């Protein structure tokens, strides 16, 4: 899969108007909610702190791991230790067979976009590079994305650095770029980078929060997203 996208990138094909589509992962393409909540609860337990409610734990998704726990527990919390415990819990849960699933329609849209000669795809995520590589391998997406930006490459969302790095890597202007995500951090990052901010309603932040953060559009389904990108 996705060889058409790679061939187009190799030829240097760049066709207006929308040329670069950057996706968030968790809450946008994949649903990892149960695993995220379980790993975060283990992280809080590891340092003897009470875990916030589920909605708050998911509300911090999209930030880098240290920023997740700084936001959830406060600047005085041992958030670096909590982050390490979270990563250890995540690894253990994976080994025990836990995981995630694609949202319905995600695979079809990625395949369709990757086959379009005028589309370049990217990822901007708070995940680690190792985690992203595992996800791409699982779904056969290793050749789909021309640029992959993670929490290891740039400051945490909502700073615009991930998108700015993607623009530099692909040579595509902000005016021809869209960021698609499920959190207010994604929308604020897109706005700060000067690109189109498209929110999805099926993720971890409510549509009202996406609008307040500057979403230009919000879609309810992948079919709506496909139509918006085509338009």
Describe this protein's structure.
There is one protein chain. The model is unreliable at 3-16 (pLDDT under 50). The strands form two sheets. A six-stranded parallel β-sheet has the order 5-4-1-6-7-8, sandwiched between helices. The protein has a two-stranded antiparallel sheet with strand order 2-3. It has helices at residues 3-11, 33-46, 54-59, 65-73, 79-95, 106-114, 129-139, 161-170, 184-193, 207-212, 222-230; strands spanning 20-23, 30-31, 101-102, 120-124, 147-149, 177-181, 196-200, 217-219. The protein has 231 residues and is of the alpha/beta class. 45% of the residues are buried.
Features:
two-stranded antiparallel ribbon; 6-stranded parallel sheet; about 230 residues; about 15% strand; alpha/beta; disordered N terminus
Helix content: 40-55%
Count of separate DSSP helical elements: 11
Q: pLDDT average, as an integer?
A: 89
Strand content: 5-15%
Global structural class: alpha/beta
Give the strand order, joined by hyphens, for the main sheet.
5-4-1-6-7-8
Largest sheet: 6 strands, parallel
């Amino acid at each position: 899969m996705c060889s058409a996208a790679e061939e187009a990138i190799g030829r240097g094909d760049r066709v207006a108007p929308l040329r670069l589509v950057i996706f968030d992962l968790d809450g946008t393409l994949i649903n990892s909610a149960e695993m995220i909540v379980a790993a975060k609860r283990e992280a809080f337990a590891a340092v003897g702190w009470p875990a916030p409610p589920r909605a708050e734990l998911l509300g911090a998704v999209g930030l880098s791991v240290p920023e997740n726990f700084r936001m959830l527990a406060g600047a005085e919390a041992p958030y670096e230790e909590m982050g390490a415990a979270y990563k250890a819990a995540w690894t253990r849960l994976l080994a025990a067979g836990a995981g995630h699933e694609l949202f319905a329609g995600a695979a079809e849209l990625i395949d369709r976009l990757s086959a379009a000669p005028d589309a370049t795809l990217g990822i901007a995520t708070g995940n680690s590079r190792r985690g992203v590589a595992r996800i791409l391998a699982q779904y056969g997406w290793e050749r789909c994305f021309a640029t992959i930006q993670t929490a290891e490459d740039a400051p945490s969302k909502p700073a615009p650095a991930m998108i700015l790095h993607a623009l530099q890597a692909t040579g595509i202007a902000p005016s021809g770029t869209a960021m698609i995500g499920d959190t207010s951090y994604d929308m604020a990052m897109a706005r700060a980078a000067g690109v189109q901010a498209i929110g999805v309603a099926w993720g971890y932040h409510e549509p009202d929060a996406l609008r307040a953060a500057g979403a230009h559009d919000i879609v309810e389904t992948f079919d709506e997203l496909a139509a918006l990108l085509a338009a």
